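Objective 1b: paired records.
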Amino acid sequence: MNTTVSKITNNSLEIAKKLIENEELVAFPTETVYGLGGLATSDNAVQKIFTAKGRPSDNPLIVHVHSGYDLTKLVSVEHPYVYDLLKAFTPGPLTLVLKSKGVVSKYVSCGLDTLAIRIPSHEGCQKFLKTVNLPIAAPSANVSKHTSPVTSEHVYADLNGKLSLILDGGKCIGGIESTVLDVTSETPLILRSGLITRDMIISVVGKCEYADKPVGDKVRSPGMKYTHYTPKCDTVLFSRSELDLAQKAYDNYLSLGKTPYFMCDNIVSQKLNGNKLLLGTTAEEIASNLYYKLLEGEKVADVIIAVKIQTGSEIDVGVMNRLEKACKPYKKEGEL
C-alpha cells in the first residue's frame, strides 16, 4: 500500500472522506497528537486500526466527532454537569467517557458499555471531521508502545505502507494526549491526565477525583494499563534531587562509547554538562515539546537521560505520567 502525505485541502479532504466511507484508514492532526482514524461504526475499519498499530485488543479507542455533531446519537448523557464541561472545554483536549448506545463497533470499547468521545479543536481536524460527518475511532497514529506522533513525518516513519493517506496539519501544539474523564457518575473521574486539569474541571463542576488504577484486564481508557510512549533508544529517568547521579550516568555512558543526551527543562539544563534536548520552561511548553524531543532524541542518542518535571502546574501530572511510562530503570554504574 502506498502512503501519501497531503496538506489539508478541499481535494485531500474529499479523498479522505471516500477512504473513510470505504472502511480505509486516514491519519489526521489534532491539537494534541496525530490520530489514526477509521469509521467507528465499521468492525472492519476498527480492526484495521488495531492491526496497523499492533495494538492490544483490550485497549479501547476514542471516537472523534466535529463540534456540531449530536453526541446523543452515540451516548447517553446522564448528568447535567456534562453539558457544562462541553461548553467550557470543547472543542479541546478533553475526552468524555459516557454510557454507549451501542451504535459504534463493539471493538471500539473492547466489550465495555461505555464510549470515550472527543471533539478536537485543531482547525484542520475539524475540517476533516465535518467533511466526513461520521464518528471516527482513532488512537494515536504510531506503532503501539512507541512515542506518540506530533508531526506527519512521525506518522509516516511509523506507519508508511499501513494506510493510504496522512493529512498534514503541521506540528501539534498540545503535545500530550487529551485528558480522559469518566462522567458516568455524580463525581467526574480522571482516567488519564492531560492539559485539562483537575482544578480546571473542579472550577466548572465543583468536584473531580482521580480514578483508581485498573484492576484485572478491563481498562476504561487508553493509557491506563500498558507501557506507552517509548522511544527506540534507551531512556532513563532521574529526580531533580539526583542531578549529580544523572551527570555521573552521562559521563559513564560516554566512557562506554555511547552517545547520551540529557532531556530536561531549561532551568535544570543550567546544572548539567553535555548534549541536551531542551523541553522549555513552562508546563505548556514542556507538554508541547515532550514527544517531539523524545522522537528527536531517538535519532541522535544511544540513551536519553531524562530529569523529572516540576513547574508547579497541574499539567505536570500528565507530563510525568507519559515520561515515567517512556523510561526504564537506570542500572547503577557497572551494570550498564
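Objective 1b, second protein:
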Amino acid sequence: MAAAFACGGLLALAGALMQTLFRNPLAEPYLLGASGGAGLAALAGMAVGLAWPWVSGLAFAGSLGALALAAALGGRMLARDHTPLLLAGVMLAAGFGALIALVLALAPTERLPGMLFFLMGDLAWASQPAWLLAALLAATITATTLARRLDVLQLSPLKAASLGVAVAPTRWTLFALAGAATALVVAQAGSIGFVGLMVPHALRRLGFIGHRALLPACALAGGALLVLADTLARTVIAPRELPVGVLTALIGVPMMLWLLRRP
C-alpha cells in the first residue's frame, strides 16, 4: 500500500508537470518515451532470465536513456518551442512499441505472463516503499517551490519571459523532475497508465488551478487512486490478481467522462 501510494503520487505529479511543460491537458508522464524505453530494457532482461533487481535496474536505465534521447533530438529549442521535443518523444514511443512487440514475439512462452504484467503495471515487486515515499516528498516540495513560475509559464513563454521567468531553465527543470519521477515508478512497478493523465486534469476541473494547491493535491489524489486500484486488483477475483493498470483505467475513464460532462 505504501508503494502504491508513492507510485500513484509520483505519476500524478509527473503528469501535472508534463501538462504544464507542454501547456496541454492531454500530456502524461509517458509522453516522451519513458515507458517504452523502460519496457524494452526490462523485457529484454526478463526474456534472458535475469532476476528482478537486474530487471528493475534495466527499466530505470532504459527510461532515463529514452528521456535523454528525446532531449537530444528535440530539446534544442525548448526555450521558445516545445513542439520538437514533443514530436521526438512521440516518435521514440512508437519505435519502442514496435521493438517491445518484437521482444514479446520472440520471448519464451513461460515468461510471457510476467512480461505482460510488467507492461500493464504490477506492484508486487515494489520492494522499496520508504525510498519511494521519500522521493514523492522530495519531488512534491521541489515542484511546489516552482509554483509561481509555473503559473506564469502557463500563460505563454513570451509573457513569462517578460515577467522575469527564466523560461528555458524552468522548462528543463520540469522535464528533469517529471522524467526522474516517471523513471523511478516504472523501475519499481512497470507501466501504470492513466493516473498521470487523469488525476491532474480532474483536479483542474474541480477548481485546483494554481500550482501551489494543484501539485500537493496531485500527490495525494494520485496516491489514493492507485491504492484503491491496487486493492481492487488484489481482491476482485481473489486469489487471482489483476494488473493494476487495468483497474486504474476502469476507475479513471468513467470518472473523466463524468467530469467532462460538468459545466
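The longest helix spans residues 211-235. The chain has one domain: 2-261.
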